[in-house]
Design goal:
The chain has 152 residues and is an alpha/beta fold. It is built from 4 helices and 8 strands. α1 packs across α2. The termini are far apart.
Length: 152
């Protein structure tokens, strides 16, 4: 954790179901680093740590993130209409949560396979993506570095 910049605040994501092993035992939590000002400062007081007891949905990604936790994190760290960046989009959980919270989102993923999973999830949620194999521009849009942009 010392390789990260000094956060302005911190919390913890507690997951009683083990995440793996480390030198001292089971990995059952992950740090949450908060940078900048709380977007709700002076308006409300909310907790900085969260507990996850629900398994994430199986969607074809080897390590999907739990949707409900990502919804809590995005609600804590952003306001309606703001843009959220997920530079390691994976199966698109952050983008789905952002859409459902009224945020804009940008997701970047290098793996075409995981991009396709995210596109399918977002297609079900908000995007009218259509397959146009004969349209090189449309295909390039879907595969360009695995970039997916969400604008609610």
């Amino acid at each position: 954790m010392s390789s990260f910049p000094q956060p302005d605040s911190f919390g913890c994501l507690i997951q009683p179901a083990t995440l793996g092993m480390q030198k001292w035992g089971f990995v059952d939590s992950q740090p949450i680093f908060y940078y900048g000002l709380d977007p709700r400062s002076g308006k409300t007081i909310s907790k900085c740590s969260f507990m996850n007891t629900i398994a994430p949905e199986a969607n074809g990604h080897p390590c999907p993130k739990p949707y409900h936790v990502w919804t809590l994190l995005l609600a804590k760290g952003s306001l309606n209409g703001e843009t959220v960046l997920d530079p390691f989009m994976g199966s698109g959980t952050t983008l789905v949560a952002a859409k459902n919270l009224g945020r804009k989102a940008i997701g970047i993923e290098i793996s075409r396979e995981y991009c396709d999973i995210a596109i399918r999830r977002l297609q079900q949620e908000v995007f009218p993506f259509q397959e146009h194999p004969q349209d090189e521009y449309a295909d390039a849009q879907l595969s360009l570095l695995g970039l997916a942009i969400l604008n609610p």
